[in-house]
Recover the amino acids of this structure.
């Protein structure tokens, strides 16, 4: 469904941000991309909807060469929530922001309003619906962006650092939205440094460094590799660390199992 073929991207300054990327992402896959700042993570995902075009090589999304497609055409199928919300928000009110994409992609007025109200309730934005998005806090802006993109149910959902500025309750809502979106057969791609958030999701993990993919594998393998984590400026998720200390397979332990074995943990 998504394929990068020998993709290199060079900024106008001459800096090479991606180097010979070869990658396939299947339909309905859950993928997290991690790595140090400047590793190329955001550059990689911005090729998915044509915001960036390869300097060499090709990116194919649903069989479409992104060099030959417009951003608007790709964005209907690939919904992206940017790391910096100020680069995404432009409407006069929160409600208008969320309904804009829906109307642009063919939803009628009644359906667009219904979907917008559902998303505002889910993300706790109803009381803010008449506020100008750019006057909101960083966490509120991020939730508006997520609500706006999730509203039209794109086939591919791309989230760049979605947990930044979110408290525990809103992280739970985001987690629920990711699980439900993926369970519906849609592809979800997350760029993040928040290993505690993505560990329970157990996604496929890409580790990036200096514009290259240096590891591609299961979370249960990658997040227990201390040398790799250090090189990517990441720490081991707490549940993975506890799994190691109590002798359980790292992918097996979730928070409910942790509560069941807490007495053993306290004796270690």
């Amino acid at each position: 469904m998504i394929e990068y073929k020998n993709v290199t991207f060079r900024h106008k300054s001459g800096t090479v941000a991606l180097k010979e990327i070869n990658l396939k992402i299947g339909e309905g896959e859950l993928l997290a991309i991690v790595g140090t700042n400047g590793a190329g993570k955001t550059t990689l995902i911005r090729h998915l909807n044509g915001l960036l075009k390869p300097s060499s090589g090709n990116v194919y999304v649903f069989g479409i060469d992104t060099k030959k497609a417009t951003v608007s055409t790709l964005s209907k199928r690939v919904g992206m929530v940017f790391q910096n919300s100020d680069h995404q928000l432009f409407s006069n009110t929160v409600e208008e922001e969320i309904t804009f994409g829906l109307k642009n992609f063919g939803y009628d007025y009644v359906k667009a309003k219904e979907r917008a109200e559902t998303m505002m309730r889910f993300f706790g934005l109803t009381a803010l619906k008449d506020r100008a998005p750019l006057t909101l806090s960083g966490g509120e802006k991020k939730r508006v962006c997520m609500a706006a993109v999730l509203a039209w149910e794109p086939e591919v959902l791309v989230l760049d650092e979605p947990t930044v500025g979110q408290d525990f309750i809103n992280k739970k809502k985001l987690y629920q939205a990711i699980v439900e979106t993926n369970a519906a057969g849609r592809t979800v791609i997350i760029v993040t440094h928040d290993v505690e958030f993505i560990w329970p999701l157990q996604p496929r993990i890409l580790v990036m460094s200096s514009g290259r993919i240096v590891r591609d594998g299961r979370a249960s393998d990658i997040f227990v590799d201390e040398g790799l984590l250090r090189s990517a400026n990441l720490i081991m998720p707490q549940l993975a660390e506890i799994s190691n200390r109590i002798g359980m397979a790292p992918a097996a332990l979730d928070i409910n199992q942790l509560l069941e074995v807490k007495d053993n943990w306290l004796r270690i």
Summary: The longest strand covers residues 16-25. Residues 237-268 form one domain. The two ends are 46 Å apart (CA to CA).
